[in-house]
Amino acid sequence: MRSSERCLRPGMPMQVLQAKGARIPMVGLGTWDLRGRVCARMVEQALRLGYRHIDTAEMYDNERDVGEGVRASGVRREDVFITTKVWPSHFAPKDLQRAAKDSLARLRLSQVDLLLLHWPNPQIPLADTLAALCEVSRMGLARHVGVSNFTVALIREAARLAGDELVCNQIEMHPFLDQSKVTAACRSLDIGIVAYSPIAKGGAKNDILLDRIGKAHGKSAAQVSLRFLVQQGIAVIPRTSRVERLSENAAIFDFALTEAEMSAIARLARRDGRLVDYAFSGTPKWD
Ligand SMILES: NC(=O)c1ccc[n+]([C@@H]2O[C@H](COP(=O)([O-])OP(=O)(O)OC[C@H]3O[C@@H](n4cnc5c(N)ncnc54)[C@H](OP(=O)(O)O)[C@@H]3O)[C@@H](O)[C@H]2O)c1
Q1: Crossing angle for the helix pair 208-217 and 259-266, nearest 10 degrees?
Q2: Ligand 1 test: best mutation among 62, 66, 211, 240, most atoms within 8 Å of CB?
Q3: Residue bearing the CA closest to ligand 1, atom 27
Q4: What is the pLDDT of residues 47-104, one digit of tens each?
Q5: 3-state class of 152 per DSSP?
Q6: pLDDT digits (tens, 9 = 90+) for 191-249
Q7: 216: which residues sit within 8 A by CB, 6+ positions away?
Q8: Contact 88 CB / ligand 1 (< 6 Å)
Q9: Which residue minimizes the CA distance to atom 5 of ligand 1?
Q10: What is the SS3 string spanning 16-47?
Q11: Which of 37, 91, 185, 245 is deepest in the core (most CB within 10 A)?
């Protein structure tokens, strides 16, 4: 897993996370909870500002709006990295293929860049689901495939079953959550990490330490939270419904945190710092 400097638009340097042939822009727009006109407008504006990575899911009920925003932006399809996710109730092989096709129909695309299993589903054998996911990729419906919310044990099992095909594990990551074990496992398998809730659902802005460090760099606490992650080679997908915050959340490549600042922020992490939970199959174990 590597990240490299790349200029996506004059004046807006962006980095790319490279994992097993996938090039995932280090900052993307999260779209959970954005719907309708607001969603389409945020996607359009983000792309106009230089974002090149959009995160959606069949469960978000906004794939139509995301597709509309992408088309309205005027940015060429091949220049945008679009991720969607299959919900666990569609993990039986036939259902998975249908779900992927339905997502593409709603997005009005012939292919997504990354298709993820949204959460583990212990009710359906992982081997069957992964075989179906890889088949969907071979059919050309997804350029790359990956998983989300996979624990250490599950990501090892998935990598064993799917070989080199899994490029990413999208997991909750922010300064208040200790994810050291699962990130180490992903790194050892060369699986890229995409951080969701990277500003702790807005909570980062209230943290005294992040705020103090931000002031030293002329940045906000939210920007420090995002920088803390990208500086470790982790891609981030902050979500906002405010156009003015789009630029703020992407302006994290023109400063660097010192080693002492990185260590101080890392000390905020707690094992029980999760903000996102899932009721489908119980709370996943994170070790
Ligand atoms: N794979 C999964 O299971 C999973 C789970 C959860 C999320 N996700 C993905 O990850 C994305 C991001 O996670 P998230 O939405 O949970 O949380 P987040 O991005 O950490 O935080 C979003 C919240 O922070 C606020 N915010 C955004 N920018 C800000 C800034 N610069 N300063 C202060 N506050 C700011 C937003 O409010 P405003 O709208 O008012 O700006 C919103 O309330 C989701 O949208 C979704 O795409 C994936």
Answers
A1: 160
A2: 240
A3: 240
A4: 999 999 999 999 999 999 999 999 999 999 999 999 999 999 999 999 999 999 999 9
A5: helix
A6: 999 999 999 999 999 999 999 999 999 999 999 999 999 999 999 999 999 999 999 99
A7: none
A8: no
A9: 196
A10: EEEECCEEEECECEECCCCCHHHHHHHHHHHH
A11: 91
